Amino acid sequence: MRITAAFALLSLLATQLWAAEQLVMRALTVEHDGEVYQVRLEAVVNVPPDRVFGLLTDYERLDRFNPGIVVAERLEGGSAEVDRVRTVLEGCVLFFCRRLERVETVRTNDQRRITTRLVPEGSDFRSGETRWVLAAVTEGTRLRFRARLLPDFWVPPVIGPWAIERELRSNMRTMLERLKRYGRSAEGHTRSRDVYPEKLRHPGRVVDSPNG
């Protein structure tokens, strides 16, 4: 059942279809080398950079971009330069479901860079880093994303990497679509629990209501 822990990789990323006139996916690669998974993304969304930055750093509302996140909170012990963020994920890969936790330190720079580092003591990962770089372009914001993740669980050598890569791709696209949606509408200013009041939670898995 540990294959289901692969769903945790979707949290960081991070979180379907997108509108071509408002979102351009330039590159998305997901690779694994042994136990390490790496993700590279470049895309353009028709949303101003300051708005994108605000959405990505609204830590307590990260569930808007990844429906697998059931808890998102800022922890004590941070500083003026570094935030500590905890997320809890529930979800399924193939037929198996699991609940996992992740604690990260988050640094930002000039509202254009966001870097995170996983804290192994509070996470189901041995290590992990991510980096967002935002730039203003004519169409809105160019996003460049890099991630390196080392899970602290066993992944079957054949089906496991394939399932993880497939889900990572799908969830990165979902996340970008939601960035576009919230960045260009008043919904981005409402609390996620009000936007998704119909989300249903079942033991071991998360299911969105058909009305969502």
Oligomeric state of the chains in view:
single chain
Strand order of the largest sheet: 1-2-8-7-6-5-4-3
CATH architecture call: 2-Layer Sandwich
Which structural category fits the helices and strands? alpha+beta
User: Strand-and-helix sequence, N→C?
Assistant: HEEHEEEEEEHHEE
| SS element count, helices | 4
What is the percent of helical residues? 10-25%
CATH level 4 superfamily: START domain
Mean pLDDT across all amino acids: 75
CATH fold annotation? Alpha-D-Glucose-1,6-Bisphosphate, Chain A, domain 4
Task: Please report the total strand number as a whole number.
Answer: 10
CATH class descriptor name: Alpha Beta
Beta-strand content bin: 35-45%
Instruction: Outline the low-pLDDT stretches.
Output: 1-21, 190-212
Which overall shape is indicated by the principal axes computed on the Cα atoms?
globular
Total discrete domains: 1
Largest sheet: 8 strands, antiparallel
The end-to-end distance, rounded to whole angstroms, is 29 Å
Rg from C-alpha positions? 16 Å
